[in-house]
Amino acid sequence: MRILNTHVIGCASHAYVIAEGWGKLPANMAYGYTHGVCVDSQDNVYVHHTGKDPVIVFDRDGRFLTSWGKEFEGGAHGFYLHQDQDGKEYLYFTDRLRGLLVKTTTDGTLIWEQGQPDRPDVYDASRRYVPTDVCVAPNGDIYVADGYGQYYIHQYNAEGSYIRSWGGRGSDPGQLLEPHGISVNLRGNEPELYVADRRNHRIQVFTLDGQHKRFMEHNLDLPCSFYFFGDEVYIPDLDSRVTILDKNDRLITHLGEDQQAYKQQGWPNLPKAYFRPDKFSSPHGVCVDSRGDVYVVEWTAEGRLTKLIRQRE
Question: Where are the NHL repeats (predicted)?
Answer without folding.
Answer: 167-209
